[in-house]
Amino acid sequence: MSAGGAARRVGYDDGVAIAKAKDRPRDLPELAFASPRNLPDPAGLKGRVVVLDIAFAADGMGTPFEEVTGKFLSGLGDRLAAWVDHHDHDLHARYAGDPRFVLATKAQHGACPEMVTPELVHRTGPVDTILTHVDLDGLYAAAKWILGGHQPYDGADDDARAVDTRTGEVGKQAHLIDRALRARFRDDALKRRVVRWLVGGMSDSEHRKVIEEAAAVFDAMAGETRRLATRYRIDGRVAYVDAGTASGRYDKTELLLAGQKLAAVSIVRDSGMITVAAGFDSGWNFVTLCGLGGGMPTRVSLAEARLPEVVAAINGAPLPTPNPNPGAAPDAM
């Protein structure tokens, strides 16, 4: 085995290996980032690949499974080491017999890192590339995989779940990272820095400085987000705002949460799309209501042409039964 191959075994066996991973971040598996509708060319991914926190593409969202996820899987072939995800999708059952696929719904697991266990990492074996989602949930899952299925710090799984579901208390480290990522969501260098910082025990002061600078950009966006929030209008169960009038950068998640203080469901329009969201524990399932086939039940994005149809469907649907404890960690259920 090459020296690089040996290094990539770091984090799979015991505490000593985990310590070595923290001491030598340059030896980590290669990191790549993607979203369900924008997957990379498999030929550009090195060696065995583990995919974390990336949902299957859904036909109802304009990205047919066979043309996106299916094509990617065919191109990757036997190099797929594991696919771990917690987003609802009609085609999960197709892969139930393949042990490489560890798939759940959002109700079963509110975040992906809690699905990354020492047993799973050990069973999967060494990987050369980690392809993960672009948000905090995905980066925490990547860091945990590198550390052999162990949390980068106590409470990291809880933090990832709180951030991804927007429920519960979020710790200081996750609050900082979440703000930084939301301010510079296209910055892959920042994402790699976050993973290295987590794997290194958050001891690198230079990593922390860059992350704090990005978080400060997010804080500067807060004023425009608050201004847009004053422009919501109510239509039955829906609070709607057109963010196309924004005079500067804003944070869509915070804007959606502001709308949910006014109505059961919030909708933000921007750049030809609408984002529909409700509280994680609300019981709303927009995947089913809008006939999408897959995704996060309480937050979906659609073409803006569907706005009248979606508002009518929400206002005409039976009121959902709230789920008091969705996506809780298995030991909390």
Kindly describe this structure:
This protein has 333 residues and is of the alpha/beta class. It folds into two domains: 214 residues, no CATH class; 90 residues, Diaminopimelate Epimerase, Chain A, domain 1. 36% of the residues lie in helices and 16% in strands. The protein is built from twelve helices and twelve strands. Strands 1-6-2-3-5 form a five-stranded parallel sheet, with helices on one face. Helix 10 links the parallel strand 8 and strand 9. Helix 5 packs across helix 8, helix 8 packs across helix 9 and helix 9 packs across helix 10. The longest helix has 25 residues. The radius of gyration is 20 Å and the shape is globular. The N and C termini lie far apart (43 Å). The N terminus is likely disordered.
Offer a concise description of the structure.
Helices cover 36% and strands 16% of the residues. With 333 residues, it is an alpha/beta fold.
- Helix amount: 25-40%
Main β-sheet, spatial strand arrangement: 1-6-2-3-5
Low-confidence region ranges: 1-26
Number of strands: 12
Supply the number of structural domains.
2
Instruction: Please report the number of helical segments.
Output: 12
Strand content: 15-25%
Nearest-integer average pLDDT? 89
Q: Give the topology string: H per helix, E per strand.
A: HHEEHEEEHEHHHHHEEHEEHEEH
Largest sheet: 5 strands, parallel
Distance N to C terminus: 43 Å
- The shape is globular
The radius of gyration is 20 Å
**Which structural category fits the helices and strands?**
alpha/beta
